[in-house]
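proline dehydrogenase structure dump, as promised
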Amino acid sequence: MDLGTKLFRSVLLTMAGNRAVAAVAQRYGLKLGARRFVAGETLEEVMMEVAKLNRKGISATIDHLGEGIRSMTEAEAFKQEYLKLLDCIQEHKVEAGISLKPTQMGLSLDPDAGFTHIRDIVQRARKHQVFVCIDMENSPYTDSTIGIVQKLHKEGLRNVGTVIQAYLHRSLDDVNQLTNKAVVLRLVKGAYKEPNNIAFRLKRDVDENLKQLIAARLDSGVYTAIASHDAAIIDWTCTYASERRISRQAFEFQMLYGVASPLQERLAKQGYKVRCYVPYGRKWYPYFVRRLAERPANVMFILKNWRVRKKS
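structure tokens r here:
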């Protein structure tokens, strides 16, 4: 990554936490291009988008956006929204699971209450036969997130799994531990800034570790999601599974809403299981800015939309 790209990303990520900018963006952003990456602000909007994906043979993981909560009152409100989301999935009969962040449920403010919120959601999800993925945040929450999933499994709530990030040195040990307990995992490269002593610095090292994690999981037979838009990783996974005669029903590919849509559709047509991560909600701004920071071309897409709208 060159210096200009690093500066570009740094500026955008700083903007992600700016409340004044967020207020303006939330007034106009979905109209100017944010809807490319965010399915909408309401349950009705996200259900429509998930139904469209389902018709293409693609399932979904729905995430109600929200981060940086400051009170357990906010956490309670997010829990209630997730319970409504689960009921809505049941009502509309869409093929979808859900994804949530532990801190969004209050983990950093009141760990016991946060766990109770998560348990309430997982219990409702089990009633509706919906899978829940507990997202992995940055390294201070790795142990607690894994602990939450293990505790829920011990309570008989097995419709829940979590995420393992390949850029952490510890990840193979975590994968082996959770595989032994038949926990469903989503494998990702990882996106948080972590200290050098706990994370790989070079992309090639992260890629090699991700391949090692994928191989370990595919060989185990425990259901696994490979979450990547990296064509090289996807091709490698397909080849590995084919050479070892691993069923395409034993794993799935996961990608983001609005990113690599043709690739998602092509894999689905080839008989692979594909799941699209579909975010929605009023607090979409930080998520949207992170998508812009990933590629300068995404910013050009938004500016083009803004010019077209200004002229009309």
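Residues 19 and 109 are 21 Å apart (CA to CA).
lmk if u need the other ones
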